[in-house]
């Protein structure tokens, strides 16, 4: 079981090397992140994009791309399509977004012919290391799914469980986070949380996982707070996965902790046949490398 | 201008003393918070409730209530009504919820005859001291208004501006927080944020305040992140007030920072004729005392 990014890096670098196809790689920040990850032995790389510009950037900034495959594809949609095709054909094991916009890349990911569709909703899963917690915390979704319906939340939980099990968490426990512990018809998040727990009880998520809600943030993560509130739920205080009811909840939570607490973060898109690395310019170089490590560790070879 | 709780305590204790009416005071945790605040010279106190039980608790736990007024009113709705009446009559300057439930207390606060109505929506305003920020940050609403409409958001901003001006913030800047910086019709929070900025431009919030949105959390508070994103808005990076689009955003934000960052917090209900202290059992003794200090400093005498 992986409990920290240090453990994740060690485990990833000792696996048979995964190959990452980068869609539209001709961008300095993208190349820096990719070179950082390659140097740490986390991944092999195929750079799809404007090869001349890629080489120029690498030379100008002393980035060593000599061990990377280059595929020259100047037009952005074509570069995105080729990177996705490399993954669906098995030539690469994971995808990374370069300077192509997200919509263009996802159109290829969802393409019926060469895409990576599983029929499940794609969502962003953040994996966070919070020192006070002593374990990795998964959170979805602060960047992709705006206001998920109940059915979308079911898919998001399945995506999170896949990541949790991939990280070796034996009995992953998920909480659909709400603002209080009771079902209140005026608060849709509490109604959905109870419904998700029922779906879990009915077997929707399979064996070896748990879903419990409605629980608030403190009830989900803080055993003592849960006890103080009189909550006896076995998941309370032990959540591995926080499912957020709106994108704004996840977005503010993630950004507030990055800025004001001492945490380490990563994030990938889950729900396709292979992990997708989609970092933001606001991410630190460390966060970008963490995300590549996470995707590489979870990628199937 | 008050920049920290240390400054707030000093300023409050040097003001003419405010009187706080406590509705249903016969509860150990309530009495502990009240005695703590009284000892620090923050407030005079009138305890409305079961006087015999109040005295018994105080004696049993060595709490000094000798300087406090006691009004014997055993029945909870009657105690709530009397405490509210004390404030509306001017005999007290602020209200605190004891062990009466919130709905019962607010029914009296909103009573047409003896209540504290202003016609404006009541909301919870948290005031937080985040060391990295160097100023107090106001946030609404993590505990009261579930999914505010645009009109309710207007009232919430007015409440926040009242608190900010009460704390001496000269040109308070408010951001309706969203997950990104563009208006996206699929994200109601971004549509409302733009509408609130327009209402501000049209003069709805008066002179000497600013409203800017849509902005995400990092764009609102982090000048460098705003610059990095190419945001030139004058409020970006300088927000004093975060208006959250859903209760879950505020609730998770507040609880996550309390648990994982080194911050100080307080909170009051604003929008009535006088501040209302409404602490939760989950609040630390320090947070409870901070909230009483805040209400006392803002109360009009």
Instruction: Please give the most extensive interface between any two protein chains, plus how many residues each contributes.
Output: A-B, 37 and 37 residues
pLDDT averaged over residues of chain A:
97
Give the % helix of chain A.
40-55%
State the end-to-end CA separation of chain A: 19 Å
What's the helix-strand series of chain A?
A: HEHEHEHEHEEHEHEEHHEHEEH
Classify the oligomer.
Answer: homodimer
Describe this structure in words.
The structure is a homodimer of 301-residue chains. Chain A is α/β, with parallel strands linked by helices and 301 residues long. The first copy, chain A, has 11 helices and 12 strands. The two termini of chain A are 19 Å apart. In chain A, the strands form 2 sheets. In chain A, strands 5, 6, 7, 8, 9, 10 and 11 form a 7-stranded mixed sheet that branches. Chain A is elongated and about 65 Å long. In chain A, a hairpin with a 6-residue loop joins strand 5 (123-129) and strand 6. Chains A and B meet through helix 8 and helix 10 of A and helix 8 and helix 10 of B.
Could you give a short description of this structure?
The structure is a homodimer of 301-residue chains. By secondary structure, chain A is an alpha/beta fold. Chain A has helices spanning 5-13, 28-39, 51-60, 76-88, 102-109, 150-166, 188-201, 217-221, 223-228, 247-260, 285-298, and strands spanning 19-23, 44-49, 69-72, 94-97, 123-129, 136-140, 173-178, 210-211, 215-216, 241-243, 264-270, 276-277.
